[in-house]
Every structure is written in C-alpha cells, then in structure tokens.
Amino acid sequence: MSLAHTAAEYMLSDALLPDHRGPRLKRLRLELPLDRMVKFVAVGFPLLLMSLTFAQEFSSGSPISCFSPSNFSVHQAAYVDSSCWDSLVHHKQDELGWVKTKSLWPHKALPYSMLVLAVVMYLPVLLWQYAAVPVLSSDLLFIISELDKSYNRSIRLVQHMVKIQQKCSDPHVFWDELEKARKERYFEFPLLERYLACKQHSHSLVATYLMRNSLLLLFTSATYLYLGYFHLDIFFQEEFSCSIKTGLLSDETHIPDMITCRLTSLSVFWIVSLSSVAVYTLLVPVIIYNLTRLCQWDKRLLSIYEMLPAFDLLSRKMLGCPINDLNVILLFLRANISELISFSWLSVLCVLKDITTEKHNIDTVVDFMTLLAGLESSKPKHLTHQVCNENP
C-alpha cells in the first residue's frame, strides 16, 4: 500500500503548476487577433498609398503637363506648369457663355489626405489603449493567476486528503468527514467566481470596445463620402483648362486666356481611390463580425473551468445578457490561452472524465484526482452504495 501512496504522491506532484513564472504583462495580448489585423490594415494601408503618391511625384517630376504656346521660353513653360498646379482650377464655359470653375484640389491633397486618414483610423486604437488596456491587463493578470491557483489548490487539497487518509486509523471516520465536507461545499474557493460574477454587471470594457469598432465604421463611412463626393467628380477628368493670365503673365496680351493641361498622375489617383474603396469595403464585414461576437458567450472556456470547485457560472445559470465586461474578458482569455497553463490540464481531465466508467461522483478536479490517487477505490462498499443511491 505504501508503494501505491508514493505513486499517488508523485502523480499529484507532477500535476501541480509552477507558482512563479515571472512577469507576464509583456506577453499578454491586449488586442484580439482580428482587431490587430484591422488596425494594421486601416492604418498601414493609407500610409502605403501616401508613400506611393510621393514616390511617383519624386520619380516623375511635375504631376501635370501643360501645353504652353510655342513662343514660350523654358522658364515661362515651367512657370505655367507651376502656376496651374498651384491653382488646379478647371475653367469651362457653359451654353450662355458664362465661365464656370471647378477645383481639382483632391489631386494635390491626395498624399496628405491619406496621412489624415491614417491618423483618424488610429484614433480608435488610442481610445482602446488609454481607456481599456490598463483595466483589461490587470483583470487578465488576476483572473489568469486565480484560475491557475484554483487548479493548484485543488491538487494540494487532494494531496492533503491522501496524507490524512494514510494517517487515519479508522477509514470510516475519514470518509464520513469527506462526505460532510463535500455536502457543506468546503472545497470551494469562491473569490474568482464572485469576481467574474461582478464583471457581469460592469460595462466599461464592453462600452470601450463597442465605441472602438463603431468609430471605425463611422470613419470608414466618412472615407466613402470623401472618396465619392470629391474623387468621383474628377475621377475621369484627365485634362483641364487653366487660366495663365496671373502673376508675371497678367499683363501679356499676346498669350491666350486658357491653355490645356494634362494630369500625368491620374493613374495613381485611380489606384489610390479604387484600392481604398476595396480595402475598406473588405474591412467592414470584419468589424461587424467583431461586434457580433459580443452577442454570444464563449461557453467552451467556461465549461472547461467547471471542473474547478468554485467555478459553476454555467450550472448556476448566472450568465445573462452577454453584452458586458465578462464576455470581453472571456474573449481575451481565449486570445491568451497559452498563458492559461491550467486550461490544457483541465481539458485533458474533462476528456478523461467523459470516458471514465465511474461518473457518478465526479464533478470537480478534486473528485477526479481522488479517483486517480486511488482514494475512491478504497472507499468502503456501504459508502459507495450510499453515494450511488444519492446520485442515480
């Protein structure tokens, strides 16, 4: 029997998790994978387009080419190109002979508008960083630590039960005390469960998360309006009539009032406009999906931790409306599942629990580990029948 007890002690000691794993704050993922992808695309893509427009301008020179009169010198032609690019105003006569003007400033403001778009898309990220990350990081550190500690407490409790069973001269006394402790719920550690239950009534994290994604949708809609209202109006206009009687040429009488200029960077304008619409259109379903995840609970994670003695949020039906901070925390626990060492152990125990033949008295880690340690097999027969009758 001593050999069996020694084997049980070794088995329980191996099941314990390390208590000190160093600082984990730097390794915590405080952004969900899809949110991080949306951030990189929504912020990085406009910066990429801005680099494209600047690179095209530096490599190709002037973004417009004006057809100056043949008697113009090189300096006069350069002045005309510069003046028309600075104004970017198209002059057109209507049927009554009135001259109408239309500004083509989006061509000139294209790289700067992409920079503004990137800054605006980064504002929801800053909101999340400053309003939610400090609270979320402390919550995750506490919950992850308590989940692992609750698992360790269960293993240490079984170790203590094995030692008491070895020292107890009368096995009936030991089993009577054990059954009494189970009925009185002495094995529970309710701090974590009550903390998570309180998070169901808190809405600061979920409000910040909803605001972050709502702002992304709002800014995406504003981007559509900007591209549709300003870019679409000049999307197919490659040439425009420019008035050159300004500045040094204002008093010249031998030059025409208007000359024709061609936009050499129109292809870049097309690429930037169309790619912006395409990319942000693809981001919209992802943002909406991030919002819809708040409408359902991640019950798989909760069901695994039902093996802990003090964790029965599902069995007590304490889960109500999922739009609260607890659901957000569960999403981030899923993203940081690698930090939850107890999760893999409990997942294995849940699988073993489902295939074991003695399911009548296995509800928690304590119950299952007592079975593995050999305590259940040494229970007196009349106590075993009594438990079977109480739990048919």
Describe this structure in words.
This protein is mainly alpha-helical. 62% of the residues lie in helices and 6% in strands. It has 15 helices and five strands. The strands form two sheets. The chain has a three-stranded antiparallel beta sheet with strand order 1-5-4, with helices on one face. Strands 2-3 form a two-stranded antiparallel ribbon. Strand 2 and strand 3 (99-103) form a beta hairpin. Helix 1 runs antiparallel to helix 6, helix 5 runs antiparallel to helix 9 (204-231) and helix 9 packs across helix 12. The two termini are 31 Å apart. Mean pLDDT is 78; it is low at 383-392.
Quick structural overview:
It is built from 15 helices and five strands. It has helices at residues 2-15, 33-60, 74-87, 105-108, 110-131, 133-167, 171-183, 191-199, 204-231, 266-292, 299-304, 325-335, 341-355, 365-372, 381-390, and strands at residues 64-66, 89-93, 99-103, 239-243, 258-263. α6 packs parallel to α14 (365-372).
